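Example complex used in Figure S2.
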Amino acid sequence: MRDYIRKRITTGILTILFSFCLTFFLIRYAPGNPIKVLAGTENPNPELIEHLTAKYGLDKSIPIQFGNYIKNILKGDLGYSYMSNEPVSKLIGEKLFATILLTLTGVILSVIVGTFLGVYAARKAGSIFDRLMCSACYVFDAIPGFWLGLILILIFASKFGILPTSGMYDLRAEHQGFARVLDVVKHMILPVSTLFIIQMPMYFRIARSSVLQTMSEDFILTLRAAGMKENKIFNKYVLRNAIIPTITKLSLSLAFIISGVALIEIVFAWPGMGRLIMDAIMKRDYPLLTGVYLMISVSICVVMIITDIIYALIDPRIRLE
Amino acid sequence: MRKISLLLVIVLCLGLFTGCAKKNEVPEANKTEDVAKIDSEPEVSSEPKEGGTFIASVSREPQTYNPDAHSDDGAYPVIQNIFNKLVKINGYDQVVPDLAKEWEFSEDAKTVTFHLQENVKWHDGKDFSSEDVKWTFDQIIKEKGFASASLSDIEEIICPDKNTVVFKLKGPNSGLLGYIAWFGTYIMPKHIYEGTDWLENPANQSPIGTGPFKFVEHKSGQSVTIERNDEYWGDKPYLDKVVFSIIPEQSTAYQAWLNGETDENKHGVPANELSGFENNPDYVIYDKLWPNKGYIHFNVNKGKFADLKVRQAVAYGIDRDEIFTKALKGIGEKAEYFISPLYDWAINEDAKLPERDIEKAKALLEEAGYKADDNGIYFTTTVDTYPGFDDIVEVLKSNFKEFGIDLQVNAMDDAAYDEKVWFGRDFELTMLGGYQGPDISAIGNRIGVGTSMNLGEYNNPRVEELLKQGVILSSEEDRAPVYKEIQKILSEDLPNIFLYEKGAKIVVKSYVKGHPAGEAVEKASESEYTYIWLDK
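Predicted assembly (857 residues):
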């Protein structure tokens, strides 16, 4: 087991290094110039562009910029955003809470409800409930989140006026204490519902199909032939085997939790990481982008390592390979 | 199974329509009522009421509140309320007093003296003086701030006393005042910035100005709050607070505004929804026209449009009426001349854009040596665009096809556009627009040699001469013939073909009084909320 973990950690670190180098060069070689963005589209001032290009070291070759970046990052310094001149770590930190609050709630709801419904549908395969859920999930799965979010706003905020349109807090009321928590919850309902509706079908289908598949395996047939009770077979043998794909999908979702959900955040004006990334891309804010990508690749690797360990605990066959 | 899916689709679509219904209902419900306030001064109501919070949605997040270092469209509405300039631009695009209560040019027009407001204090309580003005402009020039290129005619700034600033110029420049009033020239506090790197000063995130509102806080990704400056030297604001709510998506911002969560929507109302607000007593519509022409800009040195005949063909071939009605939904104006109609004193009636004549356009292409293929297409070309011209290039595409040019559209994001077109000058034709004021001489930035928006590198020595003359002269009478001749040359050389005059219909909720597009149009700059009060 210890070897298994050590191997996973080494692979994780190598993955981070590789993806860091790749993204560093990729975004800098991509067309576009952050300083021109600073100069604006109306009457951009060539003097300003020249001055700031030199100040931010963008007149140096990209490998030299890479060297400088590595030097700083070893000191724990992710650098400063070109746009606001604030530390990248601060800009990322400000968005973490809101991002995790939204995406984690969405993922947890989707995985619990989706898996539960999926398992139930699999047990009642062929029933009206099963058929209804399957077709509903196909439809939900095909809906673009961006569009769905706007429709939910139109129905619940504009038509019925029962939920706020967007944002995280009521800007007029300025609630404090518990009222503030309730306020956030109220603002979360629509974006979380959107996330839930578009993510839940995936968990439903994974759970349903993997339960169905496990139930058709030979050892289940043997257990049945041996006269074991259907409930015991299901709870003790089927579920445990069928849950692995759900964990895989869940870990993938969790890995991307800090990268946020840009489109949903944009529709609901949610102050999350997805918007930060989109802004940084549009403005070619290299230090901010590099910092964000680094954070995301680290979080992906950490979650992957933890997932691998959980696999090994649930299914001993995996750690023996 | 299929039936059930179908049912679900129908249910969802119905949801869509019930959702939309609201938008149409708002105006519908009030159509029968008699009050129509559109484009007219709202009736004078009771005394302005003090207090209240005003919430305005903005699409972009402010990055830095250093108002002069570089351009930041996100921070612009906030900055206008926190800082002052020497002179500013009002809603009619006129230069009006701000920190300078009056100013005068010397006889030789090489010196301009500003007399400053007295008893002005910075938000931190320190006294404002002419030294702050001098420091600000020196700094912009030294550190290459946004406006530095426009201020290059300033030789020296001196402060004879606390309330007077004198700008000594290298030569007469009647356009300079416009640049001082425009952008990137807000007066910054010397006592806070002196001796620091102005890009890194912490005040960039909690600005200290002299303006009508004080900065309170910026919640990342959510909102920016400013509050009334009780010590303000000028007309004191009525509002207690202004909150800028950051809503990136236009449809969401529009709904939040309709739902009453915001009082003002800086995105504006979508063009196809506008008709619903006419004749509705809950809203007032103000018409706005900027000195801002949208136009086709050619590369006059390289490629197919280096040939004047081909540019003339385009001028005859395009349908400006169709662009105005379809792409712009009738907002603004159709372009007729080579200069903004706001400078009516300088318009050359003889230099008009030609009426559409497809046969003439085709004949010109043939004169230029092109042969039509079986589909009537002479050649294929590509228009490079940055965001904002999607509808316009769609109309252009079909216009071009009608006179025999197959126009491909290469729509890029700003950064990719800059790389290819602004830096690379690798294009045949592109779309441009943007502010071309407040002084008429600003057209020089688009046709003068080596200027920042002359991407096609148009170069006409006579135009150069005239542009120089235009800024030396100061009275409209003397300047008009100069700019008329420039228009004549532009109509012959056609480096640009103007399509439309940018305008807007600004819809304001009727309980919002003293709006910068409405009652305060002469006194306030575009997003300045000093005069706003809430009548509810």
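Chain B has 14 helices and 19 strands. Residues 11-42 of chain B have pLDDT under 50 and may be disordered.
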